[in-house]
Specification:
The chain contains five helices and two strands, in the order H-H-H-E-E-H-H. The protein is mainly alpha-helical. It has a two-stranded antiparallel sheet. The longest helix has 30 residues. The two termini are about 20 Å apart. The mean pLDDT is about 80.
Length: about 150
Amino acid sequence: MEMRRHGKGWGTAERWLLQLYWLLSGYGLRASRALGWLALAMLTTILLMMGAGLPQDSPKQEATGTVPPGGGKVTFEIDKDDPQNPTHDRLTTKRFEKALSVTLNSVVFRSSGQDLTTAGGYIEMASRFSEPVLLGLAALAIRGRVKR
């Protein structure tokens, strides 16, 4: 692997892929490196969620409807306002707990079920792709160590 990574006969995409594999997990041999990157990715996700991903307040559902004169069928329309970014107090304990919940759910491919801002939706999608990959690299490295 090391010779392939430093060799000149390989394409650019393959060289970058090998560099990334070496950087993230030491060719699947260093679980601590993969777990370190996972912890860093989770911390980054938490900070991004606290800063721009969580709305200021949880959007409230609002029901409006009309009652026809003389009785009859009542119809309601349930609508929610779009989540808004907070203007102050982004780094609070309550927001940290919500961000931690979203991040831990993203590591195991689950949707958090939280109402998120547009930026928060994209942050969650990126973390739902990248963090399980890092967890998988760590699991492969641990498996390789146990198997020896």
